[in-house]
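Input record (one chain):
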Amino acid sequence: MRRRHGLWFALLCALCLGNAATGAERLLLESKSPYNTVLVSEDERGLRILRFERGGARQSVVKPGDPDHLEVPYVRAMLFALVFSERPRRVLVVGLGGGSIPSFLRHRFPDLEIDVVDIDPVVVEVARSHFGFRDDAKLRVEVDDGRRFIERRSGRYDIIFLDAFGPDSVPYALTTREFLRAVRAALTPRGVVISNIWGPSSNPLYDSMVRTYQSVYEEVCTVDLAGAGNKVLVALPWKSLRTRDELIRQSRQLTVQLQLRSDLGDTVERGFQRAGAEAARGRVLIDADSPDRPPAAR
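The corresponding structure, as predicted from the sequence alone:
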C-alpha cells in the first residue's frame, strides 16, 4: 500500500489511540516483509505488541496463553457483532495481526468455523511464533489478499470482521463500493460485517467510507471508542428493529454470557449511534478513483 501520510500522521495515530508504548518495551523481533516492517516487542506486563513501523501505532496486543485478554479497546468493541449474530456458525476475519479476534472466538466458540486471511506471510509467521496463535481444523489461515479471497470465496459467513490495516490506514481497495458489494454477497441473509476504521480526526475519507457503506447496506451504525482515534462500524444487509436501549441491554447480557473482562454494554452506551449526517459530507468511494491506480488506467 502506498503511504499517503508523513511523520505527523504516525505521531497522531499513536497519541489518539494511546498506542505508543506505555513504559519500557523490549524489542523481540524486527523483520522486513513484502508489505511492512514487522516489529514485535514486549512490555513489563508480558504483553506482546505488533507494529508496522518504529514508533507506529499498535496493530495488535496479545497476552500469550490468555485468549480472553483483549487489551485494545477496538478489539473488545468488535464483539458487538455477536449481538446481531448470536449463534454464528461460520465467520471470516480479514487481517490477522497477533490473532486476538480469532483466538478469542476459537476459545469461546469451540464449534465455530473460522477462516482468517492476511496478505502478509511474515505477519502470519510472527503470530504463530511470538503471539501464541494456533490454527487448527476449525481455525484456518490463508495468506492472500483479503479482497481477492472474498471475491472468490465458497459459501457464506454469518460475520465478517474487517481489520486489515497498513502502517497508516485501511487499504483503499477495502473501502470501495465494489468491495463492499462483494462482502455483502459473502454474508448470509442475516449476516453482519464489522469493521475497524480510523475516525474523522485522523481519516480524511471517514465520511466517504460511511456513505459508501450506506450505499450498499440496509443499516449502518458506529461505536465511538472513548479516548481512541478509531471507530467500529457495523453494517447489516437487513434492517434491525432493535432500539438503542435494547442493543445496550443485549450487550450487557453478552458480557455476562461470555464472561468478558470489560462491559460491552458500557462501550455501546457511550459510543453507539446510527450513521446519519456525516454521510452527506462524503462521496461514494469506487475502484476507479483509487489513488493506487496508474494514471493510464483511470
